[in-house]
Amino acid sequence: MSVLGGGVFGSGTDDLTDLRNLVDEIGARSFDARIGHRALPDPLDTTAWRHLEEAGLTRLESSGDSGGGPTEVAVILRSLARHAVTVPLAETDLLAGWLADAAGLDVPGNGPLAIAIGHANRSGGRIVAHLSDVPYAADAAAVVLALRDGGRLMVAVTGPGGLSITRGRNAGGEPRDSVSVDLGYDAFATADVEDELIRRGAWARCVQTVGALDAAVEFSVAHTREREQFGRPLSAFQAVQHTLATMAGEVERARSATNLAVAAASDFGFGDPRTDYAVTVAKVTLGQVAPGVVTSAHQLHGAIGVTIEHRLWLATMRARSWIEEFGDTSHYARRLGRLALSGADPWDVLIGNIG
Known about the structure:
By secondary structure, this protein is an alpha+beta fold. The chain is built from ten helices and ten strands. The strands form three sheets. The protein has a four-stranded mixed sheet with strand order 1-4-5-8, with helices on one face. A hairpin with a 2-residue loop joins strand 4 (142-149) and strand 5. Helix 3 crosses helix 5, helix 4 (89-102) runs antiparallel to helix 5 (194-226) and helix 7 (273-301) crosses helix 9. The model has no long low-confidence stretch (mean pLDDT 92).
């Protein structure tokens, strides 16, 4: 089944076709090479990362002279998620690299970066923190710390060797580590960008979730065509057809909302209120769509789809994990509700005319 949607996630011929084809090739090779070698946690795919670096795709948004931006990053993130490639591209480019630059700090020019977000605790002249669910901390060339201290964001860059790190994972097998920080106060700079940092993370997870849900629908269509019951393919049964149609429709709803968020970030930047609104809508929509699509995909596959070696498990479990990161569905639904009740014109809220 081909991708139904248009916009930045389309499958037709446009200015992004060559980029889509390149990243799809890297993703497909990564997936094929890891068949029979997945683990919990699923380790960083150093080969795929090297290919992305060689193609100049790991610092598009955070590098001022790359010629790329949110649109190109969205194409890459969606494709890597669709192929379950275990690399921290969003963390490196959209989050850690960007935040370090905003704080006037340097990061290594090569290698993956990690972003560790949490609360700072002062102890004498030092900053102490204990952070959980940090993506790829143990695998990074550097970890960018983003620690809330009252109304400020304390930012520092350190190598993994300067931290105490315990490896862990999310439900989809991706590295999510526990990190203990104990650094001198003078190691930190400040940056007033916390809201934008979280927005960027939420935006990235929406894009990645669309890629994972695309994969879940594609796998379900292929499986029901190939699997026979009572002498007929599963796809010949009307109930299965209805389930597949509902799944595809729900993913298109999520894709439309995410396309809006990509367009807003590309046109106005991540710091703009219109992008904030679009990301809020996309987060709520993905949170509504993902559980139902995941459930239907596993119902159609039966027991074979519940192991880490099956391609469906990698898509669905990562989708379920991503929708909870950088704020869960309830958090963004409350934000959207407060906006609707804020006295703004209801039509402006509906069409996203938020300024």
